[in-house]
Amino acid sequence: MGTMALDANNTNPNGTEDTGMTNLITRLYVKTREFARAQTMTEYALILAAVAVVVVAGYQLMGNTISNLLNTVDNKL
Questions:
Q1: CA gap 15, 8 in Å, rounded
Q2: pLDDT by residue (tens digit) across 33-77?
Q3: Helix, coil or strand: residue 58
Q4: Which residues are within 8 A (CB) of 10 and not within 5 positions of it... i.e. 6 or more apart?
C-alpha cells in the first residue's frame, strides 16, 4: 500500500485533508477482509478433513462388502 504525499496544508493530492483516520480505516478494512478470507479457507480445510474421515471410516466398515459385491458382479459377467 503506497503512501500519499501531503503538502504544507496537510492535504493530499485530492485536495482533502488527511488526518490519518482515513489511512487507519483503510488498514482496518484490509485486515478484516484478509481475516475473513483466511477464516473461509480454514473452514474449507476442516470440511475436507471431515469428508476424508467419513470416507476412510466407510471404507473400513464396508470394504469387504464392496469387494465381495464387485467379485460377484465380475463372476456373473
A1: 12
A2: 777 777 788 889 999 999 999 988 988 888 888 888 889 999 988
A3: helix
A4: 17, 18, 19
Return the amino acid letter for 22: T
CA 53 to chain centre: 20
Q: Which residue has the higher pLDDT, 10 or 22?
A: 22
CA distance linking residue 36 with residue 56, whole number of Å: 30
3-7, 20-24, 69-73, range with greatest mean pLDDT? 69-73
3-state DSSP percent of the chain in helix, strand and coil, to 5: 75, 5, 25
